[in-house]
Structures are given as structure tokens and as C-alpha cells.
Amino acid sequence: MTGTQEKKRVFIKTYGCQMNVYDSDRMADALASDGYEATDRVDNADLILLNTCHIREKAAEKVYSELGRLRVMKEEAARNGRQLTVGVTGCVAQAEGAEIARRAPVVDLVVGPQSYQHLPQLLRDVGGGKRAVETEFALAEKFERLPAATKERTRARGVTAFLTIQEGCDKFCTFCVVPYTRGAEVSRPVDMIVAEATRLADAGVREVTLLGQNVNAWHGVGTDGREWGLGQLLYRLAEIPGLDRLRYTTSHPRDMDDALIEAHRDLPALMPYLHLPVQAGSDRILAAMNRKHKADDYLRLVDRIRATRSDIALSSDFIVGFPGETDEDFEATMRLVETVGYAAAYSFKYSPRPGTPAANHAGHVDDRRMSERLSRLQALILDQQTQFNRSSVGTVMDVLFEKSGRMPGQLMGRSPYLQAVLVDADTSRIGTIGRVVIDSLGSNSLFGTLVEPDVRPAATQSTVEVIT
């Protein structure tokens, strides 16, 4: 491309999980090397990609609805002599690639999550008048061939970043589509992960969240040629200069081993906030979900984790109204939540996913009863979250400042527990970690005041200090 040619613009709409956010960034990186620049305006894009998620209810229908709107845009662009290319990527593309191509003529290409490295070539094929559908499982090739982001693009994305280290899942929970849309568990090797994390740190990223559909099942080849677990990987990543904070999500209780728990004890960079989905508190429902753990297994695991690091906070996922769930089963979930005490949690009504075993289970719970149960559960979780946030008032926390707040002279940062913290401070502090006394609690944020002028590396600071 010569300097006089106008760059093509790509608009990527991202649905769903953090892994899709990561994938959208990697697609943008791959397309940048092919002459595309990212735009946040759909109306001036030459290429529109919908990076889809299949977890939520009626995900495919929402995609087709969006494609209907894009059809109108594409026809308007054609009348104005402009070519608009439309693509569907992500898990809906993986699950329904051929059906999307059949039902939505507006779509020029369909690309599954393991094939983003092929995007430039697929777009060239589309430019030649073809329609492209690529949904092969080729995870290792994906990460080997996707280009790294430039330092400038990484800096523009902020001081926190996601880093996918594992994709796919072998657990086959009966409600989940992941094994069918992301494939079997595959782990990236240590050297590839460390190289990417180092590039992020060199570009100014201060916090990295490791991603995987079942991230604590990661078992990659280490620098010594042996298989490592997630705990060992975290120790290695904590050695990277400038990388002050580490997180990981999402986990399965069955894969929370001693080495990983000990990493929470030993590594100041590993934040004391753990997302550990349990899904239900009834052993009968857990067995029907094929979770492979019982409620007591989960509670004993929580006790082990808290005994190792007393200041750790937990979040979780819950499904209400799984087929066959009785009032007694639901009360068991409520008791588990009361016993654990969560800082936050995500809870949803069960909805069947085509192709999953649970979709064919008997005993589907009516929507009214599911809504009543969900309302009770969410009220309990909200009460626990409010109590947890209220307990932060009067403490001093390490806050990573990420961006300007809504008010002039205000910065927004994150506590070790992912709470949004607002302080009055200069923008020069973005990307630094400061000590903040928490003064008050808002509806969605904590408000605080800087308590010291200097900014020290996170590894030398305690997480939370209680003011007496």
C-alpha cells in the first residue's frame, strides 16, 4: 500500500466473554498488517465483523437480527458505489457456519475462533467474488501465525490486558456449548505466553488477566521441556519487570491444585480475587450438570484457599432452574451462598443450548418459578457484595489507575478486588499504582483519596491496610 492510498477501516462488534475481547484485538492486529485500521464508527467501516458468543440465550437469533440491520447498510453502501464486507466470527460462527451462510446472504465470510490467522487471505478471497466459511479447529496454528500487536496499538488499548493461555474444555458440563464451539482443551506453551506478556509489559501494560475456558486446567510445555501447571506459570510471569498485577479466569473447582493455591500465598502480584464457579449448591443438580464435584468438595476447597490467603475474595457463577431443580435443590444453593459469602457473583436462569445434553433433560422449570428463585438469589448476592464493598471504607488499598473519570480532575482505577475506585488525581498517574484511603461507597464505585505522593511497585506493597 502506498502512502497516498486511503486505509480501509474495520469495525468489530464484540459479544460475550473476555476471550472474545482478546480475540477481537488479535483480529484487529492481523488486519492491520493487511492495511486495515480499527474504527469505532460502524457507518464508515469498509469491513464489519461480528465476534459472537454462544453462551447467552438466543445468541444466534440476536446475530441474525443484527445481520438484518447490516443488510440495509450494505445495500445503501452499494447504491453509493462503496463496497461493504460483512463477516461473522466467534462461537456462533463455529456452531452455525453453514446455516449462517445459507440464511444470511449479506454475510461474506464466516470464521470460527481457531481460524483468525486466515482472515487476510479469506478477505482476499471475498474480494475476488467468493464467500468464505472457515471453521476448522487449529488452535496451535492460530497463536503461532497471528501477528503481535505493535507497541503503539497495545498502548492505545490501556494499562490492563487479556492474554489467552488456554482454549477449549474437556469437562462437558451438560449445559455448556464450549466443547462444541471451542473444541478440546489446548494449552499454549510457556515461552509463547511469556513472550506475549513481556511485550505487553514493555508497552506499558501493568496488569494481565490470563484467560481460558478452563484456565486452571492449563498444562503447557515449560522452558525445561516438562509440563507445567498454572501455579508454576504464574511464578514465572511474576518475574517479568513492569508486570505488577496478575489475574486469571475462569476456573473449575476440580483443577484448583495445591501449587495454584500456594501461588496466591507467595506472589504479591497475584491479586486476591478468585472467580471460582460452582453453578449450584445441590449435589443432585451438580451431578445432573456433570460438574464432577459436590457442594461439600467446593466448601472444603474454599476453606483451603482462605486458610492459605486470608484476604482473598471470591466470586462465582450460578444457574437457577436447571432441569429437575426442586425447591429443596434451590434452597441448597442459597445455603451455599450464605456459607461462602461472595464479593460478587453472576447468576442466570437456565436456558437450553441446542446440542447440549441438558437441552433434552426432563423436568424443565417454568419461567415464573425460575424468575422468583433468581430474584431471591440475586438479592442475597447483592447484599453480600454491598457488605463486602462497605467493609472497604476506611481501608487503604493499592489502586491501579487506568483512565480519566467522568468528572474533571478525576481518575478511575481498580482495587485488588476489581472494584472501581474514583480519586482526584492528575492524568500523569495513569498506569501507576497508588495508595488510596477509601472514603465512601457509591452505587457502583468506591471513592477515595491518595494518601502518599510516591508510587511504589506493587510487589512491595500490602494489598489492603485497615486504618485503626
Automatic annotation (TrEMBL):
Record localization: Cytoplasm
Keywords carried by this UniProt record: 4Fe-4S, Cytoplasm, Iron, Iron-sulfur, Metal-binding, S-adenosyl-L-methionine, Transferase, tRNA processing
Reactions the enzyme catalyzes: N(6)-dimethylallyladenosine(37) in tRNA + (sulfur carrier)-SH + AH2 + 2 S-adenosyl-L-methionine = 2-methylsulfanyl-N(6)-dimethylallyladenosine(37) in tRNA + (sulfur carrier)-H + 5'-deoxyadenosine + L-methionine + A + S-adenosyl-L-homocysteine + 2 H(+)
Family: Belongs to the methylthiotransferase family. MiaB subfamily.
Binding site for [4Fe-4S] cluster 1: 17, 53, 91
Protein name per UniProt: tRNA-2-methylthio-N(6)-dimethylallyladenosine synthase
Superkingdom field: Bacteria
Residues in MTTase N-terminal domain copies: 8-128
Residue intervals of the TRAM domain: 390-452
EC annotation from Swiss-Prot or TrEMBL: 2.8.4.3
PANTHER family the UniProt entry points to: CDK5 REGULATORY SUBUNIT-ASSOCIATED PROTEIN 1, MITOCHONDRIAL TRNA METHYLTHIOTRANSFERASE CDK5RAP1
Cofactor: [4Fe-4S] cluster
CDD domains: Radical_SAM (cd01335)
Enzyme class: transferase
SUPFAM superfamilies: Radical SAM enzymes
Assembly notes: Monomer.
Function: Catalyzes the methylthiolation of N6-(dimethylallyl)adenosine (i(6)A), leading to the formation of 2-methylthio-N6-(dimethylallyl)adenosine (ms(2)i(6)A) at position 37 in tRNAs that read codons beginning with uridine.
Organism: Kaistia defluvii
Gene3D superfamilies registered for this protein in UniProt: Methylthiotransferase, N-terminal domain, tm_1862 like domain
Xref: Pfam families: Radical_SAM, TRAM, UPF0004
Binding site for [4Fe-4S] cluster 2: 169, 173, 176
Co-factor note (free text): Binds 2 [4Fe-4S] clusters. One cluster is coordinated with 3 cysteines and an exchangeable S-adenosyl-L-methionine.
Domain Radical SAM core: from-to ranges: 155-387
MF annotations from Gene Ontology: tRNA-2-methylthio-N(6)-dimethylallyladenosine(37) synthase activity
